[in-house]
Each structure stands twice: as C-alpha cells, then as structure tokens.
Design brief:
The complex is a heterodimer of chains A (241) and B (215).
Chain A: E1 7-20, E2 23-31, E3 34-36, E4 40-44, H1 51-58, E5 66-71, E6 74-75, H2 81-90, E7 92-95, H3 107-117, H4 122-135, H5 151-162, E8 169-173, H6 181-198, E9 201-206, E10 217-222, E11 225-231, H7 233-240
Parallel strand pairs in A: 4-9, 4-10, 7-8, 8-9
Antiparallel strand pairs in A: 1-2, 1-3, 1-5, 5-6, 10-11
Helix pairs in contact in A: 3-4, 3-5, 4-5, 5-6
Chain B: E1 4-6, E2 9-11, H1 18-31, H2 33-64, H3 72-99, H4 101-109, H5 114-151, H6 154-162, H7 175-203, H8 207-212
Helix pairs in contact in B: 1-5, 2-3, 2-5, 2-6, 2-7, 3-7, 5-7
Classes of the chains: A alpha/beta (241), B mainly alpha (215).
C-alpha cells in the first residue's frame, strides 16, 4: 500500500438537499472534512443531523446536490456506475446498524460474497474468509446462518465482511445502536484493534458516547453542518511517539 | 477487460460466476419457500389447465377420428388463464423485491452491479418457472388421463399419448413429449416475462434508498 495519499477521504463544500414538495430539507449543507489514512474518526450528532447522509456520500451510495467527495484523491462524482460498484467492492467496507447480513447465506458465505464480486478464486476466498472470521472471534461459527447468531456475532460477521477485500476505509453507520452496552463495547474495541493492526481508516457515524474513547478525532454535525471537530490529543501523542 | 486507471486506482473487473448466482438464487427460494410455492402454484394451475385441455382434445380426436375438436372459446380460456398466471407472478415478484430492498442495497454495497441484481431475480423466476412447468404438466396429464380413462377405451388413450399432437403433427414426436416440452418452455418464458419488470425495478434501485427502507 505505502503512504501515497495524506487524505483517504476529503469532502469539499458537500451538500445534499431533499426536495419534499415546497420544502427543502438540507441534510448536508457545505461540509468540509479531511480524514487521514489510518485515522479512526467518529461523526457525532443527534438523529437528523446528517450523519447517515454523509455516510452515504462518502460511501458512493448517493450523489451529492453540490460539492465533491474525494476518496484516495479521486473525485468519485466522476465515476460511472461500473466504477462506483468497483469502489464499493474494493475500496470501502460497510457496517450497518441492522447488520444487513444476507439471510440465506452462512457466516462464511457472507464474508466470501464481496470476494466473489472482486473475482478472488474459490480456495483463496474460503481461506481468507475463515481467517477473518477467526480474527473477529467466530472461528467456530463459520457455517451458521445469521438467524442462528446473536446480534453481537452478526455484527462481527459484518465486520469480517467489510474487511474482505482489504478496503481503504471502513464506514460504520451506528454500528452499536442495536447492541447492549457490553456487546457494543466489544464491537468498538474490535474496530479499534483492526484499525491499529491493519491500518484501515475507520469512519463511524454514531451517537454512542463510548466511541469517543477510541476515536482519534470526533466531528460534530448539527443541522447538516460541521459544528466543531475535536482531536484526541493524547491519542495523537501516542501515535507520534 | 483491460484495466482502467483512475488516479492511483486500477479499476478491475466485477464478477459474478453463474454457479454462485445460481446457488444464491436457489437458497433464496429455499429460505422463502412459502412465497416461492405461491408463485409456483400460479404457474402450475395455468400450465395444468393448458395440458389437460390439449390432451382431452387429442384423446377425442384419436378416439373419434375427427380432426378439430378444440373450440375457439377454449383457446380464449387458455389464453386468459395463462394471462392470470402471469399477472399473479408479477404481483408476487414485486412483493419479493419489496421484501428485499435492504438486501439489494447491501448487495450493491458489496459490489453488485445492476445486472447482477437482475440475474438473481431472473434466475429465481427461471427455477420457479421450470418447476412450475413440470408440476403443471404432471397434474394436467393426470387430469387428461383420468378423463380419457373414464370416457374412452385404453388403446385410444395410449394412442393419444403416443401419436403426434394435432397442431405439432409435423414434428412426429409423441404428444406426451410435445406437451412436456411445451409446458416447460411456456412456463419458463411466461414466468421470466412476468418477472422482468420487478427484476428491472430491483436492479435500478438506488443503494442509499434501498438501505433506508425498513421492512
């Protein structure tokens, strides 16, 4: 990989308006953020502040009304449908509040799915998916279907799936909102561990205050605008040392 | 396909091997068996009706030696019954798509292209169509045979099944085989045609909207 770009994610005057009859809902209104490679960033704000919209914009899931999103310094508004699919497949891993595992597939098959789209050979897919599931502590649950797993276990499968194609960024939208306090903390610690070990950039949209302890920076959103950005200075010192 | 370069990225291929797509579609049918069974029933009834009407006409023709015994209104009934089957399938597939908004959104997040989503739904309808065609054939055949057995001599019944089917006389294959092929082909074509709009709709879903949808 190497240190090729300083910023993995960069937004420039990013705006998304929803038109509802005569009303305009400004879900995002001129957001400028820069997220460094390997950073763990939390986007905090009350519901309706634009967290999920920002998540969708950075993830290449929706087009902005105004402004730009750069991933690895590539302006993703310039990508066509095929290139966007490739971006979602190879560069970004997604984690959702509701886990969103494919219900008809086993844990192993769920983790293998992004690798199928990426064209990874079968043996390699099985090997890597097994390793990832072992890494998230589910080595003994490979052939379980999502309905046979607890919420915390499902989210672990989702984390393994998000890492399947070694993405540059993992985007997590409220990853702990459907979990109890203890399980939520486990998931947060797992994300932090993977962030440190694999150097993957993690961006979480959350209103879970437990997230603050592990984040390098916290971006506070309010009414579609960046209210303030807090840096965890002690964490920064630890990294530079 | 040659790799395209954008910035420092080399845009590679996005794949979905047929075997994997088929496996996932089959799993989807197994997992949502009740809905699949209802969709299948719709096509089974249409095909069974068609087979029984054609077979009864064939038996009458062989037994009495009169050439044309299917009346215009019977063809009309046949057409209407198949149309009703088709509408039923479209309705059922639209519900299947609505049920899976979030799953479709997730698939797109993992790298699925529009045509992959289309493939999943069309493969599913193809499997349902084949099974429905075969089952419809068997039920229609039983109905026709029971009718023939009670009304005519056994040799007429056997003659009707083994001689070429009226309108397909030039093919010189037994009516039982012709009806089987007709049932399966028609069932698959009808099911896939009826699923085309729902599958296209699913494929075109914007991932952000699909994910927002709460079932």
């Amino acid at each position: 990989m190497g240190m090729r770009y300083e910023y993995t994610v960069e937004t420039e005057d990013l705006a998304k308006y929803y038109y509802m009859g005569k009303f305009v809902v400004k879900a995002l209104d001129g957001v400028n953020v820069k997220i460094r490679r390997g950073e763990y960033v939390s986007i905090m704000g009350p519901s309706g502040s634009g967290k999920t919209t920002l998540f969708n914009m950075i993830g290449g899931l929706d087009r902005p009304t105004r402004g730009k999103v750069y991933i690895d310094e590539v302006d993703i508004s310039k990508l066509d449908a095929y290139e966007l699919a490739w971006l979602r497949c190879r560069k970004i891993g997604y984690i959702f509040q509701t886990f969103n595992l494919i219900p008809v597939l086993t844990a192993l098959e769920n983790v293998m799915l992004p690798m199928i789209f990426a064209g990874v050979p079968r043996e390699e897919r099985i090997k890597k998916a097994t390793e990832l599931l072992q890494k998230v502590g589910l080595g003994d649950r490979l052939s379980h279907k999502p309905t046979e797993l607890s919420g915390g276990q499902q989210q672990r499968v989702a984390i393994a799936r998000a890492l399947a194609n070694d993405p540059a960024i993992v985007l997590a939208d409220e990853p702990t909102a459907n979990l109890d306090l203890h399980t939520g903390l486990e998931i947060i610690n797992l994300l932090r561990t993977l962030n440190k070990e694999k150097g993957v950039t993690i961006v979480t949209a959350t209103h879970d205050l437990k997230m603050i302890d592990v984040s390098d920076r916290i971006i506070y959103l309010r009414d579609g605008k960046v209210q303030r950005i807090e840096t965890r200075s002690e964490v920064a010192v630890e990294y530079e040392g | 396909m040659s790799k395209e370069k954008i910035g420092t990225w080399e845009i590679g291929e996005i794949k979905l091997p047929f075997s994997e797509a088929f496996k996932i579609s089959l799993e989807n049918i197994r997992k949502r068996f009740v809905r699949a069974a209802i969709t299948t029933a719709s096509i089974v009834l249409g095909i069974a009706f068609m087979v029984s009407i054609l077979l009864m006409a064939q038996i009458q023709q062989v037994a009495r030696g009169t050439p044309e015994t299917i009346k215009a209104y019977q063809y009309w009934l046949l057409f209407i019954s198949l149309l009703v089957s088709g509408v039923g399938i479209t309705n059922s597939m639209l519900i299947a798509v609505a049920e899976r908004y979030k799953e479709i959104g997730t698939m797109k997040c993992l790298g699925a292209l529009d045509r992959h989503v289309l493939t999943f739904f069309l493969l599913e309808s193809m499997i349902i169509g084949s099974v429905g065609g075969i089952m419809g054939y068997v039920i229609g055949l039983i109905a026709g045979v029971v009718y023939g057995y009670t009304q005519f001599r056994p040799e007429d019944l056997i003659g009707a099944l083994t001689s070429p089917l009226g309108t397909f006389a030039s093919l010189t294959i037994p009516a039982a085989v012709t009806l089987f092929l007709l049932s399966v082909v028609l069932a698959v074509v009808l099911t896939m045609a009826a699923s085309l709009y729902p599958a296209y709709y699913a494929a075109k879903l914007n991932p952000a909207e699909a994910l927002r949808y709460e079932v």
